[in-house]
Amino acid sequence: MLHKRKIKVSISGLLSSLLLQFFIFQAFKMSLSPTDSWYFHLIVKVKFFLNSIFGFISISVGDIFYIFLLVLIIIWLIQVSVFYIKKKKEKVASCFIKILFLINILYGWFMLSFGLLYNYSNFYQFENSREKLFLIDYKIVAGHLLNECVKLKEEVSNNKNGEFAVDRDKMIMIINQEQSAFYGIPRQKENIKKSILNPIIIKLGILGYYNPFTGEAQVAKDIPDTSIPFTIAHEMGHQVGVAREDEANFYSFYMGESSPNKDFQYSVKYKALNYLLREIYVNDSAYVHLILKNYSKGMKLDREKEKKYYLGMSGLGSDVFSYMNNIYLKSNSQNEGIIAYNNVSKMIVSYYKKQYPSLFTKENSLIQ
Hints:
Pfam families: DUF3810 (PF12725). This is DUF3810 domain-containing protein. The chain crosses the membrane at residues 7-28, 48-78, 99-120. InterPro entries: DUF3810 (IPR024294). Keywords: Membrane, Transmembrane, Transmembrane helix. The structure is a single chain. By secondary structure, the protein is mostly helical. The protein folds into two domains: 11-119, no CATH class; 124-360, no CATH class. The protein has 15 helices and three strands. A three-stranded mixed beta sheet has the order 1-3-2, with helices on one face. Helix 10 (245-256) packs across helix 11 and helix 11 runs antiparallel to helix 12. The radius of gyration is 23 Å and the shape is globular. Residues 316-341 have low confidence and may be disordered.
């Protein structure tokens, strides 16, 4: 009679497994081309497949998954405490084994579905441009974007108070349609969800986030309308394999910059202008104040609405999240941490220098 041999799992074995996974994935990541990776094309197909599945489920499966994981880990940690007090060492070890086993699975799942894409560059020509950029270049693009936003503000959807207002669901459909056309794929079911955890993520200062385990993207409710199209496109960028935050921001700008939809175009240019002004402010705050002074009446209303929103969500929660997000980004090949979100400024200026070189040869290009 054959006896089944039990596989003995130990804490040291699981820690070794986790460490081994780390080195294997790092080596594999380094072996992939940053501009033309077979793995990227494979994983994008998987992501499209996930969209086609989870897009038909109205609630956020990813949020439910996160809640389940949190409850499970809390239960195990409580058990660890109880067993430790009762001096039941074997049961304490058993709980730690469960936790480490789960971490091993989640880490491997994350790396295969998303983590390995952090070294891939979707916009290499703009991100790694050898052309040196000067402060004057940032100012010229900022002035151009200001003029564009002033014109667009007259054409976009506004509420009765004159503030920018968009239909969130309609915007998701529009951006999804434009994304499908851009990639030359059949239009898929939208996979953008309203987060179950919305009150929490608002307090943490999160506008949206991508769930790498289910491929779902969540966009927070009640965020400023100027951020809605930009954030939707940003999260959709993650869904098509744009992992880095600076690239996801640029993806949003790139998709909307020449979009036939004026609301989408206004949102990305308005946000792009904000990113540039942050960079310029460090060296020339007077020019930033001049730009702000030249905002149209409608743009000033949009800015005031944004300011009120961000002031309302500032606090310890958002600071803690920023700190944790900073660690997460640095651990995934984004050495700049949360500053990576702002690196889009350089890419935007590089984009305009390559696509619209005449913009930089005109006289009186700066706002006076």
